[in-house]
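Pipeline run #58 for the internal structure catalog. This entry was flagged by the ingest filter as a single-chain record with no existing model, so it goes straight to prediction. Upstream metadata was stripped on purpose; only the residue string is passed forward. Reviewer on rotation: M.T. Logging verbosity set to normal.
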Amino acid sequence: MAASFANLFGIRAASADHDRKDDPQLILNLAATAETLATTFYYAALTAAKFKLPEDDVLYLKLALDAEKYHLDFLVSNGGQALTNQFYVPANLLSDPALFVQVGADAETAFVGAYLAATRRFAELGLDRIAGTTAQHACSEAQHLALVREIGGFAPNNLALPLPIYYNVSDAVPTLAPFLKGGQGFIGPVAAPSATQIATVLGGVKSDPTQPYTKVF
């Protein structure tokens, strides 16, 4: 799946451009954009998918949506701003369950990789507490990756370690580009859901409360 995503969306392996230094604001903005995309993806799956999912899979997706919204709220509260609130998506995303699983797993692979890069950069800057928090986010996205793979009938825990595909968070920009600009095989734009819309589709489902690293230490 990682290889298919690399071919489709232009993921590059860990960048040789190690001298480029992402600043904290850029990292927060890119992360907020990715989280806004993630909430859009899971919300669309729960409200507009043309294929039926078992009840336990629906619960998985609701908990993932709630977690992505939690991540986004944290980023915004710390100054992050999403670059857009509307996205383009593969045309058959909500009618082809195999494509839905592929795109979902590939996107979560990218999110994990980006948060690992953010953790590295924040640690380099001496921002240890926010580095701890982005590591938490990477762990959460890895859980979502496992659950999406399980929904698709794949072994959920196939990786000994998450894939280190980015050195800088900005290396993920080519991955986001088709979702931001569209392109062959993409339709849209699709508006990101509001907080009220998310709460409505969750119907009271909530993740167990967890404090970010920045509030614990």
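catalog note: The helical segments are 2-9, 24-48, 55-77, 97-124, 128-151, 173-181, 195-202, 213-216.
catalog note: The CA atoms of residues 142 and 161 lie 10 Å apart.
status: ready for reviewer M.T.
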